[in-house]
Write a structure and sequence with these properties.
The protein is α/β, with parallel strands linked by helices. It contains three helices and ten strands. Strand 7 and strand 8 form a beta hairpin.
Length: about 160
Amino acid sequence: MKAAVFSDTHTNIALCLEAVRRCRPDVIIHLGDHDRDAAAIHEAFPEIPLYSVCGNCDIAPIAPARDTVQLGPVKAFITHGHLYNVDYDRIDSLVYAAQEQEATLAFFGHTHRCLYEEAGGVKVINPGTAGRGRKLTWAEVDILDNGGIACSIKDL
């Protein structure tokens, strides 16, 4: 299973749409700021399942603040990250929240900085920012049938 993961689009989705066209993922994940961007991405690709959460810049959000989703054999915890103090380069609260949900994969955004590491038995991925910043990025995540995960951070 291949997932295209975007965060912090801030109404700038043109490059995300192009990345989805090139990648042809099995699922799209949008990690907030702005959650209505996720609806626009889903409208462009209605045949691809999309999971999304809201971020700290979402006013009257339409998506939940966090969710747990099944991606093939892997359970993933998705959130924007602002509720878990990720601004301070700490992921322990996020990892704990994922562990509580029995998730072995956690996606977050908010910091506009890419990250791919493992902590406490949870693989943690931040795709960076797809909408604002000097370097726009996203994550292509392959989830293998045996539960293995391969992540590639890509430029937009």
